[in-house]
DNA sequence: CTGCCCTTCGGGCACGCGCCCGAAAGCGCT
DNA sequence: AGCGCTTTCGGGCGCGTGCCCGAAGGGCAG
């Protein structure tokens, strides 16, 4: 540390000195409070402009810390073993929370069961009652989500959506993936890997498929690519709403018996692990397998060579950014009203060691 | 903002109260200064442990701001038009600087010409004379870099290396890519894309190749993959130290005449743009082209379909993290002594829109 | 002229921490 | 006992900002 000061970074004191008033008066102008004559206000504003004054965030937040806490709420699915996925966004949120706790910010989590709509509704009510300062939600159920968004709008509570968007609603921003493009990218990879004469299969493994926006959009993107390449005839598909191993295994076995020329399997979610298991059990390392999410189970099969590509969308960063966006908005009045569309990353056995979720 | 306080987050005052001493005494213990009897020190440390006390960074930095500025220096190549690459790390550093200026940190940049060793040496001397508090360097020239590292070691100035490492030297950490793996990953992609009977070509376009660690390591990684797959016979190579378009074009044309079965071209640096240009001029969209770096020129050819894969290693984030690592070390005494190996990202025409450098 | 209100502003405290100065206590020596 | 030195510790100021309280000063009615 040197003893010189460099760029003194003019503060309120300096402005007050130049305007020949007290710091309190300058403070009133800065916060647009009443009690300052129009004349001195003009003068002070000119000096602020001239010096390009920017308040010291540390001091500001330090002073504000006494007055009370900023309270944020997060509505997200609980990470069951079936959907380990939500652990990652939660980790990101915890990271953000640790970073900004010092600034007097407190984060509360409201978990719900993805499969039970009523748990979602109940948590929405709790959030409304708790009168938070900002809300981050994963709008799994549309109706109640809109209800919450309306409430926030009325009370002027900033609200950030994550993971999937509800277009046409008022919110601070959306943070999450562009699902169509992630399907499109998968198709591109599949297409690169297909050898002459081979076909690709779209595999959906989910309790509900028809109403699952995430899956439908990905499939649409996937199909769009093959349509562009005039290769729709290379596509097959396999759906099952039974998410156990046996259903998947028997279904795929039947499919491959009928269509032996399958070169690529594209699984539209993290259940790709089931398919990988089946490939291992049937000893088919030659089939290219593309799936989703940087989960420990998937990584294991990536290492073993049964999964070839994992598409990942930085879930941890999604959580981190969600909290930070609210924080910056509430504490520093900085609003990035643009949506944050997460990158679509390709993870293989050769680069997964360096991947950061 | 609510009026409640929640979790008062015990500070020095509370510790002093419990230990029945003054805040100054606690302060002495925290900063491990002399002047405290062993007995009270023990007592205070126990309370600190118990409360899991963590100093408020805002207040700490605010208090420290008066005593002087932390001065960081960065030694990096100037971004010539030939190597637009270095613009990205610089942007990341500027971003970091803006974030931490409030904490009393000042960053100075020392640019040199990548092709002129003497400019590097001159800047090393300037850095030594300027007596900085922390240094971030891209050690393009090894001899002078080691000289600088030695100097830093003597003066106990923390030093971070970026972009390429000098193993065996003492430094805070290395931030940059694992070059071998990036070549290995490229080979994996190439191998996936090769159709039966096709071959892949390693293309080096650089003024100096034999002493260029970055290129050599990548090539080694690339070869390693094909060796593992027992497919070394599928590899060809093409080197040129003339970095103009004509040399590249005529060289590749000659190669393809002799070996018409080329399916993949792997260019080991950002000069891939020259190859793309050649592919466009000869109308060969069928050849898969793999190259490096998220540069505007490369993106253009990605869009047009002449470049298929770009390998990118988040240069902007490298710069950002470099500065932040020094900052955290000097200001908060937080040291991540682990190296930060950047992710190796795969960018295609389908996901480049979402990529963040 | 006096009393009152309203506008306009300055002084002062707080936030949590770092650090300097000087006070009190302990100890050895003459 | 008196002196000086060392060890140990407390009080207090400052960092830049937010905000409250109360003090001036001017205008107006009685």
Structure explained in plain terms:
The structure is a homodimer of 357-residue chains. Chain A is an alpha/beta fold and 357 residues long. The first copy, chain A, is 46% helix and 17% strand. Chain A is built from 13 helices and twelve strands. Chain A has helices spanning 12-19, 23-30, 38-51, 57-64, 87-100, 117-130, 142-155, 179-193, 213-228, 245-258, 272-282, 296-304, 315-332, and strands at 70-77, 105-112, 134-137, 159-162, 173-176, 199-205, 235-240, 262-267, 288-292, 309-312, 340-341, 345-347. In chain A, helix 5 runs parallel beside helix 13 (315-332) and helix 6 runs parallel beside helix 7 (142-155). The first copy, chain A, starts with 11 loop residues before the first helix and ends in a 10-residue tail after the last strand. The model of chain A is unreliable at 1-6 (pLDDT under 50). At the A-B interface, helix 4 and helix 8 of A face helix 4 and helix 8 of B. The first copy, chain A, binds a DNA duplex (30 and 30 nucleotides) through helix 2 and helix 4.
């Amino acid at each position: 540390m040197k003893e010189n000061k460099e760029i003194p970074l003019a503060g309120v004191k300096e402005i007050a000195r130049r305007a020949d008033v007290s710091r309190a008066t300058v403070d009133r102008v800065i916060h647009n409070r009443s009690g300052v004559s129009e004349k001195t206000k003009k003068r002070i504003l000119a000096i602020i402009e001239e010096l390009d004054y920017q308040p010291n965030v540390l001091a500001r937040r330090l002073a504000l810390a006494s007055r009370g806490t900023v309270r944020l709420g997060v509505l997200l699915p609980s990470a069951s073993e079936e959907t380990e996925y939500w652990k990652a966004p939660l980790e990101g949120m915890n990271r953000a929370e640790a970073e900004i706790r010092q600034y007097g910010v407190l984060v509360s989590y409201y978990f719900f069961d993805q499969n039970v709509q009523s748990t979602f509704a109940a948590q929405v009510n709790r959030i409304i009652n708790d009168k938070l300062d900002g809300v981050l939600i994963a709008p799994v159920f549309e109706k109640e989500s809109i209800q919450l968004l309306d409430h926030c709008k009325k009370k002027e509570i900033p609200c950030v959506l994550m993971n999937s968007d509800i277009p046409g609603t008022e919110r601070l921003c959306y943070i999450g993936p562009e699902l169509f493009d992630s399907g499109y990218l998968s198709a591109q990879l599949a297409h690169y890997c297909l050898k002459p004469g081979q076909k690709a299969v779209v595999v959906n493994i989910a309790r509900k498929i028809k109403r699952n926006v995430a899956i439908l959009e990905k499939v649409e993107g996937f199909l769009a690519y093959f349509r562009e390449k005039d290769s729709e005839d290379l596509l097959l598909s396999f759906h099952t709403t039974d998410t156990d191993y046996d259903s998947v295994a028997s279904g795929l076995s039947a499919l491959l018996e009928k269509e032996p020329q399958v070169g690529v399997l594209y699984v539209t979610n993290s259940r790709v692990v089931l398919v990988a298991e089946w490939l291992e059990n049937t000893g088919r390392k030659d089939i290219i397998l593309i799936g989703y999410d940087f989960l420990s189970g998937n990584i294991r099969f990536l290492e073993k060579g049964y999964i070839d590509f994992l598409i990942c969308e930085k879930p941890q960063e999604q959580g981190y950014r969600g909290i930070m966006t609210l924080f910056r908005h509430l504490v520093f009045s900085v609003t990035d009203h643009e949506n944050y569309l997460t990158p679509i990353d390709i993870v293989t056995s050769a680069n997964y060691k360096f991947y950061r979720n």
